[in-house]
Amino acid sequence: MSSLLKALAICMLVAAFSGTHYSPANAGITVFICHDHPNGNQVPPTYGLRIDELLGAGVYTFSFDYIDGNGSAGVTLTHDDITGEIHIFGRVYGGKDLGGAWDAAEQGWMDVDFTYRDNIQTSDNCAGDPGNDVYVTAESANNSGTFTLDGWGGNAVFNFSDKAGSSGCTFIFDNDTDSKGNAGIAGDPMKYSASGWIKPPTSGSRDWLFVAVMGTVPVEEMTWGSVKAKYAR
Questions:
Q1: Residue 59 pLDDT grade (very low, low, confident, very high; cuts 50, 70, 90)
Q2: Which among 34, 37, 58, 126 is most buried, taking Cβ atoms within 10 Å?
Q3: What SS3 class is residue 46?
């Protein structure tokens, strides 16, 4: 079992014993397990991240739920209510989307590590109305990360930062609305709908579109940082 999976397993055990769920508005650090959104414009296959023209012309999609004989994808989002920081990290699988399948020569694993550090607010919407959802309200060079191909595409490493949408926000993490109008997601108090945009832009789409399920909140004696440190060895 990888160090990341061990850490997540420990967090899930903490949740089982605590028996309590919290919202990101009052929890300190909250851990979410991320999944593909069922209503992406390019499904099937389902995906949680789309980066068009990644290696050339075309649509490139990446699944957070993919499983095969060589492993399984897994993406975690953490939100720190004290600093506001949002961290999205993990391993995804995908490639050039041909409509129903990925191109045989352009598909594989990709490691994701992206952090939002600036312009983060807890509110009901991008306009700032009171609420307990999380919005990144403007672009910043500090809202950035890397996307690393593993075993294909020349093992290329791509650097991206956030990009403002039509509302001005760059990332939306909402508990009671869904960007695709999926009532099942919007109406489930344990599911958060995530959407956002990254750059440099192209003539296609480069954006997050996923669903996150609350995993656990580390208790005072076991913070998320201590869990990561313990299993970093």
A1: very high
A2: 34
A3: coil
Alpha helices (H) along the chain: 3-18, 183-186, 224-230
Please say whether the beta carbons of 27 and 217 come within 8 A. yes
Burial of 53 (0-12, 13-18, 19+ CB in 10 A): middle
Nearest 5°: phi and psi at 29? -100, 125
Rounded CA-CA distance 46/158 in Å is 22
The token duo for 96 is 């050039």
The pLDDT score that the predictor gives to residue 229 is 40
Q: Provide the residue type at 224 as one letter.
A: W
pLDDT of residue 70: 86
In the chain, what is the greatest distance between 2 CA atoms, to the nearest angstrom? 49
Tokens describing residue 42: 């390019």
Q: Residue 48 is which amino acid?
A: G
Q: How far is CA 9 from CA 83, 109, 112, 122, in A?
A: 25, 22, 20, 28
pLDDT confidence band for 4 (50 / 70 / 90): very low
Confidence of residue 3 (pLDDT cuts 50, 70, 90): very low
Q: Given this model, what pLDDT does residue 217 score? A: 52
Domain boundaries of the chain, sorted by first residue = 1-20+217-233, 31-215
Q: Are strands 60-63 and 86-97 parallel, antiparallel or unpaired?
A: antiparallel
Residue indicated by tokens 């306009």 = 127
Q: Which of 33, 37, 34, 36 is nearest to 180 (CA)?
A: 37
Question: What's the pLDDT at 81?
Answer: 87
